[in-house]
Design a protein that fits this description.
Strand 1 and strand 2 form a beta hairpin. This protein is α+β, with helices and mostly antiparallel strands. It is built from three helices and three strands, in the order ααββαβ. The protein has one domain.
Length: 76
């Protein structure tokens, strides 16, 4: 793995952890919305994923998650 890819993955992981550590605060501000985080900072939010993605300058390299109190079902 090259250094650039390793750095991008590490940055994504840091943002993912930050998002989960700040979940309660984010739920207060962005309930039932998609939230985009980069460098431990919320860049944008929107209830619709497609609209959120249009707001991001570098969507493929941004941590995006749906913030909700409802349990989420995952189908594998």
């Amino acid at each position: 793995m090259n250094d650039q890819l390793a750095n991008m993955l590490l940055s994504f992981e840091v943002d993912h952890v930050w998002l989960h550590e700040n979940r309660e605060k984010l739920l207060e501000q962005f309930p039932d919305q998609w939230v985009a985080v980069k460098d431990r900072r919320v860049l944008a939010s929107d209830p619709e994923l497609e609209k959120l993605l249009t707001k991001l300058p570098d969507a493929p390299h941004t941590c995006v998650e749906f913030i909700t109190r409802e349990p989420m079902e995952m189908v594998l």
